[in-house]
Amino acid sequence: MSSAMFFSLLLNIGLLVLIAALLTKIPIVRSMLLYDKHSAGCGIMLAIIFGLISIISTYTGVRTQGAIVNTRVIGVLAAGLLGGPYVGMGAALIGGIHRYLFDIGGFTAAACAVSTLVEGLAGSLFSSRFKAGKMGSSSVFILTVFVEFLQMMIILLISRPFSAAVQLVKLISLPMMTMNALGMLVFLGTFNMVFLEEDSQFAERMRLALGIVEQSLPHLRKGLYSIQDMQAAAEIIFQSTNCSAILITDTGKIISRKVNSELKDMNEDSVLLPILASIHDRKPTIFHYAKKGEPLYPILKNHIIVAAPIIEMNQVMGSLTMVIKKHCQQSQSDLNFASELARLFSTQFELSELEYQKKLRRKAELKALQSQVNPHFLYNSLNTISYVCRENPDRARELLLTLSSYYRQTLEHNSYMHTLKTELQHITSYLELEKARFEEKLHIDIITDENTNCQIPAFILQPLVENAIRYGFDKNANRYVSICACMEGAFTKISVSDKGPGIPETVIKHLYQGEHYGGVGLENVHKRLKSIYGQEHGLHILSSDSGSDISFTIPAAPESKGGFVYENCCD
């Protein structure tokens, strides 16, 4: 009997896996499984689907000593793990009520109904851990064995006579625990293919988007308003995708277009007006339906239109619009693709603007100062922004604007000297980007006396701050950097300190002796200070294994408008 029971359970598991495979091919089911935050209607539908799976398991079970040996636990427990508490308990109620009504007055009817509810509760309780990836195959196997064990205990507690319940549990416990636990792994694995396929599609879309941007770089560097280059970019997108038409617009007209033969007679004005109206909310928009007689009806009859805004320096500058042939289950992926591609275009336009500003505004002194800026800073900043893009696009846009502001300040200050306030504003932009990179590991204090105002050499602080952030970390990788400016008689003392392992004595020795030691940041600042204020006004370094303090003094030159205070601006 035991071998027949194992075989029956194996057949039932095979049926459930087949059902799961078919369900994953249904677009609406895929959508509900892929997105956690579904509506109440979607939750009810998922509960009904998994409830029906548990009902099928009851019908296909094998009757043994007044009980039904089945795989009902798989549908109910999977409902909780995949769909969350509401779906899990909904499916459990459906499956449990059906099991009771299916065999009213039966030996195990009440016990199995109660155990079905317990199984749904267990899946609901572990749902958040499962979705967070904290439950591997072994954990799911153990959980299934555990809930089946609880079912056996419930049968012993509720079913009567007790002796018959004991005999039943002895007979069915091992087959149901082992086979249902293995079946659960296979069943969830089938549904997991949905997530793997979605990840694969996303990766392919991103690869395609990055490939398009890479091909378009020579044209994007000239900006949105180079019609010839935008036409070339539209051609690249058209050739790389299955779009029926590609349109690139500014805020008032179509700049470039590429259309296939099917849409060669498309009324561009009818498309342009809704596109321009949609991009003002700064979100991608999809047009998929129009009533007969409306301007967009000839296009939307067989196509969808996806419009994504191009945003430069926090301003909507235009749109990237794709016209795509209608197919099943495509809208969301096409919307995401257009949005990401437009965002990449926006980023490149902004970087191109920064490059253009560099070429226009950099003077001889600024060229000399480039050697003191960490060459990895821009690379690290863009990497940080790229990482934040997927998790928090709004924060990524803020960081991109901060990066833009930082380089704009670097390029726009043509004067050799500027105020301490201006220098600290520039440092604040730099620190905002570094804060995004190191997060809670970076702690910054910027403190000045209220009466501290003076003229200082442009960009004199950044190499010191950058050096402190780069090397001044403790054993726990925390970086504590303090910037202080205060009055000392007729001079202003400015210091940058950290709590790192200190600056090597050989570096300090070479710096004071005027010998090149490999780095350029401290050396450049030291030489500039001495050339402007005299030999006694170079850098003064105090270093130990608990941190370093780098300071310098310059003549004070108070401004008539009074002082200012920066404190804990980046913490």
TrEMBL record:
Its EC number is 2.7.13.3. InterPro entries: Bact_2-comp_sensor_kinase, GAF-like_dom_sf, HATPase_C_sf, HATPase_dom, His_kinase_dom, Sig_transdc_His_kin_internal, Sig_transdc_His_kinase_LytS_TM. It is a multi-pass membrane protein. It is found in: Cell membrane. The keyword Signal does not apply. It catalyses: ATP + protein L-histidine = ADP + protein N-phospho-L-histidine. It comes from the Bacteria. Residues 460-558 form the Histidine kinase domain. One of its GO terms (molecular function) is kinase activity. The keyword Transmembrane applies. Keywords: ATP-binding, Cell membrane, Kinase, Membrane, Nucleotide-binding, Phosphoprotein, Transferase, Transmembrane, Transmembrane helix, Two-component regulatory system. It holds the Pfam family His_kinase. Its main location: membrane. The chain crosses the membrane at residues 6-28, 40-61, 73-93, 100-118, 138-159, 171-196. PANTHER family: SENSOR HISTIDINE KINASE YPDA. This is histidine kinase. The lineage of its organism: Bacteria, Bacillati, Bacillota, Clostridia, Lachnospirales.
